[in-house]
Inverse folding.
């Protein structure tokens, strides 16, 4: 088994991880980013990013993340595609188990982000890829001139509903309450879009179909009435779950699995930092992930220099 020693190992190659890599590489620390599948994280599957500073007209998510990666590579950050099984402390190092390889590192920055929460209704699993999707950017174009639904009332649901109107003839936004969680500016744009119809106070009980989605069975939570809404696609945006399973027993997580870290992103374990959506915090934006990534890398540099301060 081969073994390489790094100063900084960053787990996750989204906005937080790649920013940490830019700062760490630029500080001349031997840096590796370990990414499971594809760099860019959720931002790379976001059709359009309108609130990231420096792009006054907005920017496509995949394009923005390509720029992040290019910048990280310019500062010699290595990018390794592998899945982390476990991390364990060993003397002054942390040992990262990648299955067929182990990595030794002085510092670990965890930036594994979060993944879409499942709704957990009959038909969801069975019809995945046959009309059920968690990514409008990936699958939206398959739904030209047909009716689809988006489930959820947060920023993701409303933004992706707007995006889906480029293809679908109609987009229902099915939300369990009568008030959206999404930002007002995004909600306003959706209200003005004639192709979007909001279905409030309603939950999805079942996704109906066989070879493809044919309808959703919905229930009005106020009057208890149940009906089927015929459509061909259902996009779920009902929140996120942190990608932190592999960390259990290694660092402190909250009840939902988010990593608990201090103001400088240091977890309770010396030399282990947490950045971006996987961390317990108020706002989960590309801009705040970038802030976390930069903070983590700078605190890591201090830690290597012997000032490993935990608040
Ligand atoms: P979110 O803000 O947590 O919203 C999840 C939505 O799903 C809520 O409306 C919630 O309803 C609903 N929901 C949760 N569980 C449900 C269930 N079992 N059945 C039905 N509905 C359910 O998640 P998000 O929209 O994915 O956003 C995640 C984070 O990323 C947020 O901080 C968000 O601001 C950020 N984000 C920002 C942007 C941007 O452009 N600025 C874009 C995307 C995401 P309730 O409202 O009733 O709880």
């Amino acid at each position: 088994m081969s073994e390489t020693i790094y100063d900084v190992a960053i787990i996750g190659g989204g906005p937080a991880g790649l920013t940490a890599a830019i700062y760490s590489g630029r500080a001349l620390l031997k840096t590796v980013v370990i990414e499971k599948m594809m760099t860019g994280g959720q931002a790379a599957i976001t059709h359009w990013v309108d609130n990231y500073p420096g792009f006054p007209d907005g920017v496509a998510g995949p394009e923005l993340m390509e720029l992040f990666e290019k910048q990280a590579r310019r500062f010699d950050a290595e990018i390794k595609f592998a899945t982390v099984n476990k991390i364990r402390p060993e003397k002054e190092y942390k040992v990262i188990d990648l299955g067929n390889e182990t990595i030794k590192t002085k510092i670990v920055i965890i930036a594994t982000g979060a993944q879409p929460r499942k709704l957990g209704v009959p038909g969801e699993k069975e019809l995945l890829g046959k009309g059920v999707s968690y990514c409008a950017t990936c699958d939206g174009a398959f739904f030209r001139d047909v009716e689809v639904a988006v489930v959820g009332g947060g920023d993701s649901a409303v933004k992706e509903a707007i995006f889906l109107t480029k293809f679908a003839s109609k987009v229902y936004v099915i939300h369990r309450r009568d008030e959206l969680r999404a930002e007002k500016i995004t909600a306003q744009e959706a209200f003005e879009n004639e192709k979007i119809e909001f279905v409030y106070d309603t939950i999805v009980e079942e996704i109906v179909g066989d070879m493809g989605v044919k309808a959703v069975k919905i229930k009005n939570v106020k009057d208890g009435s149940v009906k089927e809404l015929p459509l061909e696609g259902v996009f779920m945006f009902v929140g996120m779950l942190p990608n932190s399973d592999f960390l259990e027993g290694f660092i402190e997580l909250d009840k939902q699995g988010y990593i608990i870290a201090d103001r400088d992103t240091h977890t309770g374990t010396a030399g282990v930092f947490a950045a971006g959506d996987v961390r317990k915090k108020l706002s989960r934006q590309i801009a705040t992930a970038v802030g976390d990534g930069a903070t983590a890398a700078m605190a890591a540099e201090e830690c290597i220099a012997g000032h490993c301060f935990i608040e």
